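FW: tagging you since you asked about this chain on Friday. Here's the raw sequence from the shared folder, copied in full. Didn't touch anything.
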Amino acid sequence: MDVLRATVDLRRKAQKFVRDRFKAGAISELDAARTDAELAGAQSDLAALGVIGLLAGLAGAAASRRWADDRRTPGRHGAKAAVWAVIVAGAIFVLIARSLTGSGGLIKALMTAGASLLPSMFVGSIAAAVAAAFLKLWGTKPDDHPPATEPPALLRWIFRGLIAALTLGAMASPFYASRGLSPLEAGRTPFSYTKPAALDTAPAVAWELHSQRLLGRFDPAAPIRLSKDERFIAGVASGAVVVQELDKENERRLPNLPFHPAQVAFSPDGSRLFLVSASEPRRIAVVEIGTGRFLLPQPKNRAVPVGTIWWHGEKDVWFGESQGKTLALNLDTLLVDPVEVSVDEQKRFEAEVSPPMPRNDRWRFVFQSMVTSVELPETQGTRDWPVIEQDFLGLRDMKQAVTRAFPGIAVREGERAFGTSDGSKVLIQRGGELKAYYFKDRPIPSLRWKLTMPHGPEEMKEKDKTLRALARGELAAMLYRPMVNPLNQQTVGPERGEQPKAVLRFARWEGKEAELWAATDFEPQAAGDVIADIHVLGESRELLSCNQPHRWWTLCPEPMADAAAAEKVPAWSDLEKKRDVATAAERKAAEEAAAERARAAKASAPTSPSAPSAPAVPSGGPLVPPPDKNTQEIIAFVLAHHLKASDGKIGEFVTDYAERTDHLGDGLVSRDFIMKDEVEYHRKYTFLRERVANARVMVEPRAEPPFQVSYTMENEWQKIDGTSGTGTFNVRLVVDKIGGQWRITKHKAEKIK
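HL: got it, structure written out here
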């Protein structure tokens, strides 16, 4: 009994030690919970071996009665049976642990089995003695049975050999596991990641992929949540809630929940989870991560609200309902009441329930469209340039016009991507799979080169397009690996069948001298690389031809002396100024050309009088601006509306719409829908400018609202991948006065060029 008491006391002391270490902050709550679970598992192993010893003692005593010579023999045989059964069972436990876990779990199993042997043997011996006493009182005497023979000596030795083999195999398992013979964890070091301190100041081009790992398969219908300190994630997998530490292989699984969860949310301190059921009627639960204990409170004054959950404060859980009204559940009173949400709280709510891609004032993660391969016929004058592109994760510098792309991290439509605020980790959920990508710093590669061109830009076959793209900062070329002739090991051109290493932009091209920089860096430049394929950036990536019989290419020269100085790369603001200057020059040239055409037409017009021509009117009818207050207010409203879009004031822009709007091709939608659509739309662009052509807005001549409005809108844009362009649209609105404010109730647009 002293042995059993000592074993139980040892477990209690171990639990107390773990709790004290957790309270002192020496270990995390997940570590404490895992250790407690291992102690519970050790106690279960002890109980199992005890039961095996007890049954073996009873069976051994009963079986030995057949050849017992005296009344003490069953007790001795039962004790022996218990001892050997416990040894064999302990060895089997260890061998099972070796096949299913790594060396850490194996050693724990070996220690547990070893510590359980004596208590289990003791239980088996007691059981054998009880069985012998029972047989002595109620059993028949040995004389009543015919004499029996013991098992053959060979059989006994075979039995002893099997026991010895099992025991030695169990004892030797840690040695073999450490030598890499474990089937699952042969020689594997547990994953661990520490963010390099240099990432706090490193520019975008100095980032590199450190590692990646599969965190598991999660129910895509239940959003993954990050803890407030961004150390843990929580999600739903096979009906259980799974909590994982991002930087280490620490996992806590919470099975046997009272319902299948549809949503999870961390408490502010990260120690608990709030769950909402997937089935009706909706139920809620609060789970303690460390112990797995769950509580089942229910609201007192109404059913569980519908909406995305957010554990706002220590005692409040918010439900963001689809109608835009937010309800709060007080965990003390269990009352559900409406709550006023400030702008700052709304931003925090959106950031937690739908974490954005990481960004700060130095960089931002984007989905970067990258060329994966190019097939280019050699035939001179070919316009067909099939470029295969795919979206990958990229890191865009917020100041310099350069983006670091990560070819190893492909992203597809419909995938959810988010990350920690410091950018060191990005998580991408593809269907049910959740992968984590970890980053480190690297030396800044070469970013700038001086190049000798075959001739000046004015001698290109597409002279006007070349000069226009150069003036707007949209002229580019590709950096490829070399294609080497295996017969003589000479470079014969670019290897277009493989992914290019970078997209280079022309900073300057005068005569035969040009300067280029790596605007999109996929892979660092190496000696022998090739520059080729001058083209105009944009959705079409139009190829341009040099004035020579074959497609132009050249070996990449040595980088400039300060090529690794990221601050020397042209800034985004420089490109915007170039576009503004080029656009102004183009507009002035177009106006001068129009004026010249008008003068020529006037000079060639006949001198005889002619009937005045009718003024052009839109196809929808005569829309003449009435000289009233409403017209002036609507014109100012429309001009301000597009100015908000150009300034990136999305919230104010969306406020101009009514609560329900017939919006483009989406039908009748809510303002929240438009907000989500505009946010996704603006994320694709680094520069977007909208304006009403000639500031001319036509308003339906009516005395009372609503008014029909029509005008031509022009826009200029640049996407995050560096492509840019313009567009012209015919816009038709219905504008009404709601609550004393002008609001758009219908918005239709048709692209005309």
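FW: The longest strand covers residues 685-699.
HL: agreed, and The radius of gyration is 38 Å.
FW: great, closing this out.
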